[in-house]
Amino acid sequence: MMLPSPGVAHYTVDGDETIVAAAEQVAPGDVPPGLDAAVLDAVPRALVVRLEGGDLAGIQAAWQGLMREVERRGLRPVGTCREVYHQTPHDGGRWVVDLQQPVA
């Protein structure tokens, strides 16, 4: 059963590698065969920027701007960064995506 929640992509740095995953939120026990369940831990603090538009052409620049702001504020990126997809053109609208960088 699909929950009425946004899709999520997340990126975890592991040494010199980056692990990328994309997911839809599902009820416990409803994970489709062949896929793995994962739970992203809550984070106490993050900087967030919202990207809105007809396409995702600006997502790289938005991430770069977010990371510059982390640095400007004297913060340190920690943990798994996320993209939360509140709306997509597949929903009949435009892209509305929150870029979230946990910080310390």
In short:
The chain is mainly β and 104 residues long.
Give a written overview of the molecule.
It is built from 1 helix and 5 strands, in the order βββαββ. The protein is mainly beta and 104 residues long. A 5-stranded antiparallel beta sheet has the order 2-1-4-5-3, covered by helices on one side. β1 (7-14) and β2 (17-23) form a beta hairpin. The relative contact order is 0.25. The mean pLDDT is 87.
Features:
5-stranded antiparallel β-sheet, globular, 104 residues, mainly beta
Please describe the topology of this protein.
Layout: E1 7-14, E2 17-23, E3 46-53, H1 59-72, E4 81-87, E5 95-102
Q: In which order are the strands of the major sheet placed?
A: 2-1-4-5-3
- Our count of helices gives 1
Can you give the mean pLDDT?
Answer: 87
Please tell me what the overall shape is: globular
**Beta-strand percent range:** 35-45%
Q: Could you describe the largest sheet, including whether it forms a barrel? A: 5 strands, antiparallel
Radius of gyration: 15 Å
Distance between the termini: 36 Å
Q: So what's the oligomer here?
A: single chain
